[in-house]
């Protein structure tokens, strides 16, 4: 499935989503590896098959196989850590904050791609998954790496657009 085919699946009631999607795909403010890895990681986080296939097809033309695997790995690891840390953050019992997570996340320390890209993808996926604790942690790491606030905002905006496309496509089928 191509990006054009994804756009064609966006229902007419979601015209703004289609326009945002079109402008996002054309936006070149992020470096190419950053952008296409971000697109793929966010598409995987939506759990929408069309989105995953479309963005993996696109990423295959722009990224190394290692970068594609890293983007998928980010989405997978964030699916786990976002649930765990969202629970720890939201639970009334603060005792959980002192307990070791005992979750393997070596990807974060050795992602196989630029560390800042991995952090940016992790932040965007964490925004999709709604984990405030992970958003704060990844944003802090990005600030320490001197990533501009505008880059961080762009990544989260792209995550929002990708999620909205997945929702529009799914709701158009109901």
UniProtKB/TrEMBL annotation:
Its EC number is 1.11.1.28. Pfam families: CMD. Residues 99-166 form the Carboxymuconolactone decarboxylase-like domain. Disulfide bonds join 131-134. The active site is at 131 (proton donor), 134 (cysteine sulfenic acid (-soh) intermediate). InterPro entries: AhpD, AhpD-like, AhpD_core, CMD-like. It catalyses: N(6)-[(R)-dihydrolipoyl]-L-lysyl-[lipoyl-carrier protein] + a hydroperoxide = N(6)-[(R)-lipoyl]-L-lysyl-[lipoyl-carrier protein] + an alcohol + H2O. It is an enzyme of class 1 (oxidoreductase). Belongs to the AhpD family. NCBIfam families: ahpD_dom (TIGR00778). PANTHER family: ALKYL HYDROPEROXIDE REDUCTASE AHPD. This is Alkyl hydroperoxide reductase AhpD. The lineage of its organism: Bacteria, Pseudomonadati, Pseudomonadota, Alphaproteobacteria, Hyphomicrobiales. The gene is ahpD.
């Amino acid at each position: 499935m191509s990006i054009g085919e994804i756009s064609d699946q966006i229902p007419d009631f979601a015209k703004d989503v289609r326009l945002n999607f079109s402008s996002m795909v054309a936006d070149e403010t992020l470096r190419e590896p950053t952008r296409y890895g971000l697109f793929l990681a966010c598409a995987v986080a939506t759990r929408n098959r069309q989105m995953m296939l479309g963005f993996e097809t696109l990423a295959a033309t722009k990224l190394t196989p290692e970068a594609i695997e890293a983007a998928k790995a980010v989405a997978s690891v964030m699916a786990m850590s976002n649930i765990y840390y969202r629970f720890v953050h939201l639970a009334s019992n603060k005792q959980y904050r002192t307990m070791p997570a005992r979750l393997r996340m070596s990807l974060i320390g050795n992602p196989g791609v630029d560390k800042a890209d991995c952090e940016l993808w992790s932040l965007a996926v964490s925004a999709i998954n709604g984990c405030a604790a992970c958003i704060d942690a990844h944003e802090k790491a990005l600030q320490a790496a001197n990533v501009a606030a505008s880059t961080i905002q762009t990544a989260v905006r792209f995550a929002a657009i990708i999620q909205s496309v997945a929702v529009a496509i799914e709701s158009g089928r109901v």
